[in-house]
Amino acid sequence: MANLSVRLFGNFSVQRDAQELEGLRASKVKELFCYLLLHRDRAHSREVLASLLWDECTTAQSKKYFRQTLWQLQQALNQPSAGDHWQSLQAEWDCVRLLPDTQMWSDVSAFEAALAPVQSVAGEQLNEQSARELTSAADLYQGDLLEGWYQDWCVYERERFQHMYLTTLDKLMRYCEAHQAYEAGVDFGERLLRQDRAREHAYTGLMRLQYLAGDRAGALRNFQRCKEALQEELGVEPSRRTVELYEQIRTEHLELPKHAEIRGLPARSPGGGSEPQFVNRLRQLRAVLLRVQQRIQQDIETVDEVLEVNNNSSDTHRS
């Protein structure tokens, strides 16, 4: 079991056996550790690392500072734990790397591991197990990577993880819509918009989910939110597709999906547990009745059109 727990989402934290690890207070020690952790799949040249962390210094100075920082990091990580000495950092004469089989857990590693198997899988095609694993991965994202750090390499990694997080939420929204877990899908949509308030297709997904959950007014309000956000952030209007969706919801002509059963994520009740089975059955029945209502409305409109054509034809013959 891992006895070193590392969190890079949000505020930096490294704990050993639930206690904050001493020896990682210096900024360069933390930076070196985080860089090695985020690029743990390979060894790194000492010279490259030195120039990355001390690019404003001469080569001789950067190498000297790197040796000192590396020694501090080794002292912090390679400490006896519960009587056993284990190595988490491998330092050769020309390269350095974090060992992949150390007793270390990190939120970024767990996040990437959960996303890797479903990278090319559409949200609608996720199975239940994959959806649960993605949900757990999304919960690990407690904030942007290393908030408050502005090194160039860190900004790049932060944007990469932001994109992965948004993609994860988008997949989960689509999964929830396809499996009638509408309330859970709305929650994922709101989380996505908190991260990127001008993401137009997130609004359309959220509008569909709210309408399918019976919250037509909320869906219409989100169209207004979308208009305001796009105007303020990008200076543009919603796309034609978004406007068409708004009109379909406003006039209650949105085509509802045909689902055979509910297989989605268990909806969270206020107490944190799953909803009873009979509630899920009621939600399924409600979706069926909405489809029936829509079909009836369409049939009535068709009959009205035929009658109108008939009436016009009769009037023509009389005249």
Descriptive report:
This protein is α+β, with helices and mostly antiparallel strands. The protein has two domains: 99 residues, Orthogonal Bundle (Arc Repressor Mutant, subunit A), CATH 1.10.10; 159 residues, Tetratricopeptide repeat domain (Serine Threonine Protein Phosphatase 5, Tetratricopeptide repeat), CATH 1.25.40.10. The chain is 59% helix and 7% strand. It is built from eleven helices and seven strands. The strands form two sheets. It has a four-stranded mixed β-sheet with strand order 3-2-1-7. Helix 6 packs parallel to helix 8. It is elongated, with a radius of gyration of 27 Å. About 6% of the residues have low confidence.
Primary descriptors:
319 residues; Arc Repressor Mutant, subunit A; Serine Threonine Protein Phosphatase 5, Tetratricopeptide repeat; three-stranded antiparallel sheet; 11 helices
